Amino acid sequence: MAERVEQRLEDRVPELEQLERVGLFSRTEIRAVLRKASALEYKIQRRALRKEDFINYIQYEINLLELIKKRRARIGYSFKKEEIEYSILHRVHSLFNRATGKWKDDVQLWLSHVAFCKQWNAKHQLSKVFSTMLAIHSNKPALWIMAAKWEMETRLSSESARHLFLRALRFHPECPKLYQEYFRMELMHAEKQRKEKKEFEKAKMDLGEFNYSEEILNGEMARIVYRDATQKIKGVEFQLAVLSIAKLFDFTQDLQKEILEKHAVFSLQASYADDPLTWDHMARWELDLGSLQPPEHTTKQRKVAEMARREERCCAVFDEAVGAVPTEDMWKCYITFCLERYNRKTNSGELKQKRLERTLSVFNKAHESDLLPESLYKQWLQLLLESHLSEKAVEVAEAATRRFSLSVDTWQMRLQVLIQLKREDVSQCFEEAIKHVKSKGTLALWTLWVEWSEGTNSKEDTEALYQRSLRATTPAESVTMKEMYLDWTYRSGGYKKVKKVFTSLCENRPFSLDFFRKMIQIEKEQESCKMLHLREYYERALREFGSTDTDLWLDYVKEELTHPQGKPENCGSIHWRAMKMLQGDLVEDFVSKYTLLQTGHL
């Protein structure tokens, strides 16, 4: 083993001598490289080989290459690459080959070799890597697609890419992704040839020696791939994916028509008749069929009328769909389509109004069928309010809460509508909501209620509502209500009032840290801020959170140091208590921050 290592180190000598001779590395650095290389070589020459050792060696060599690259750029030296970099590159490829030969099943190792080849533009080596990798991992379509894309996009060889796709399809004859990418490749090849021909014609060159087949230029090869695929793959999703690819190319109108017709055949089959997505695609493609018509010079009014007709055809399909598949998902597809069309910009007021009426009508039909999903009621209400149909909005909101009487979100939505419209029955609706919804999870309703009451009711009514909310909510939810109650009391009643409320609230756990920090902040805002009161609030907070919050202790120390009535001699006692109460790693965190505070760096 030692002899092999020595031989490999000797093989490095010429490149290291060149590195020193041209001034890229110093003698000390050369020795360091040799020491590191020696250690790495011994690790990969052992009987029990480890993958990590090869990875570390490869990473070291790559880092060395990057360092050489930066040194060259710094001193402006670009010669002797064959003696230096090429030697290292050859060694990295050799290491990768040994590693992938030993651990053939590790796809990530193969992909690392591929990435290295791409980074250093080793095209010849990369072809070999792909060839060996695909022979071992022929069961992975993604690797075939990667290799074919590289042949097409980097080596500009559509013939090699086609050959790889055909080989891949022998192993995976029913793989949709392979057919999609093969289809895309053929269209890219056709587009490339069309551009070449256009440039030649523009330059008025003789095309006699170039053979540009009209069939290939029109995407006939892609059509053959598509037809072959439809013999094996019957899914509607595949038809949609292929159509989306075809739409990326401006010469595929005929091909798109064929795909649409084929899709219609699949969609009408019994196996897909109950699938909402199938109906959704069928309806939406009525728009696509219209867009494939040859463009004509028409007026804006005719274009608007044509768009309206196409949308009507889509809705006719959707109407048939909700009759054949009366489900929430089907209605959701229909409503989503209507909302998309309504939100599209148009200069035609008539078309905009038609879209609005259609959308509201579909919402209403779905609601009457009891198949309107809960999530869509909010969009319906927004649309009604935007259209100034307030009475209808109130009616819909009430119907939604009847249907989803246990849903907090639905009640909240209804209440927001009533508040926005400034209705008189808001309080009654709040009472009804609280009665229907279980106590757990009602926090959103209580926060909305008290916020509304703050701006509408008297102080006495609002205070009574806050106190009621504390009794009605769960302990975890009451924490938020306590914070809101404290904040509102200070804003509406002043310092004396908030101090009384704080004392009364402290009688019932749980609390939040923000609850205490809010009271501390209120005290500090007073002209006669008393340290005695601050100590009381800090002590209360520390009883609850002293074991889990280091910043609370540090803030307490800062108050004693900076407040006019503070006692710096108390800091030692606070520090000792903190060390006793804090748990785990928090002790170390506190010590480091306390040291920074003492030295004036915090």
TrEMBL record:
Domain of life: Eukaryota
Domain U3 small nucleolar RNA-associated protein 6 N-terminal residue range list: 9-91
Residue ranges of every copy of the U3 small nucleolar RNA-associated protein 6 homolog C-terminal domain listed in the record: 312-582
Pfam family, one: U3_assoc_6
Keywords: Nucleus, Repeat, rRNA processing
Subcellular location(s) of the protein: Nucleus, Nucleolus
GO annotation (BP), single: maturation of SSU-rRNA from tricistronic rRNA transcript (SSU-rRNA, 5.8S rRNA, LSU-rRNA)
Record carries keyword rRNA processing: yes
Molecular function per GO: snoRNA binding
Record keyword Repeat present: yes
A cellular-component GO term for this protein: small-subunit processome
Main localization (coarse): nucleus
InterPro entries: HAT, TPR-like_helical_dom_sf, Utp6, UTP6_C, UTP6_N
Record family assignment: Belongs to the UTP6 family.
Name of the protein this chain belongs to: UTP6 protein
Native species: Oxyruncus cristatus
Organism placement in taxonomy: Eukaryota, Metazoa, Chordata, Craniata, Vertebrata
Gene it is expressed from: Utp6
